[in-house]
């Protein structure tokens, strides 16, 4: 089984995440895509994050009707902050017959050499890169193991959605109805 891993805070999960994940699962050689909910990103401040279990639950609500996608809380039991190489190593040990492919936005490529043991990621795993608005060029695209995928470019951010919620503006169509209802009922991001 070839599994694409889309890591993220998913704070909250929105249609941009879902369209990308589904596109990768249905338009590449991947058998499935798992959304890996990260409790803490080493490059982002944790004080802006909704509780990890709320983010996990919203991700599960968002993909409930899609057999091409899964949600993983694998990093919840790992030391924080989560480092991708550690998660990939753990997953490979847990599922030795699976091939794991890292999915990342083009905007992350310039930062990729700053990731913990990024060379090992490239040595043992393929990386599928999707386009992002405003990405700067880097030498990494020429490296073996990195494949560019012409996925749709959707300029939707969780930051924008959180701002809309705080300002009591509509978030309809930006995220699944089930997620919007969960946010409303639990009064998240206010």
Automatic annotation (TrEMBL):
GO BP term, pick one: NAD+ biosynthetic process
GO molecular function per UniProt: ATP binding; nicotinate-nucleotide adenylyltransferase activity
Family matches, as InterPro entries: Cyt_trans-like, NadD/NMNAT, Rossmann-like_a/b/a_fold
Keywords annotated in UniProt: ATP-binding, NAD, Nucleotide-binding, Nucleotidyltransferase, Pyridine nucleotide biosynthesis, Transferase
Gene3D superfamilies reported in the protein's UniProt record: HUPs
Entry EC no(s): 2.7.7.18
Pfam families with a match to the protein in the record: CTP_transf_like
Stated family: Belongs to the NadD family.
Protein known as: Probable nicotinate-nucleotide adenylyltransferase
Gene name of the encoded protein: nadD
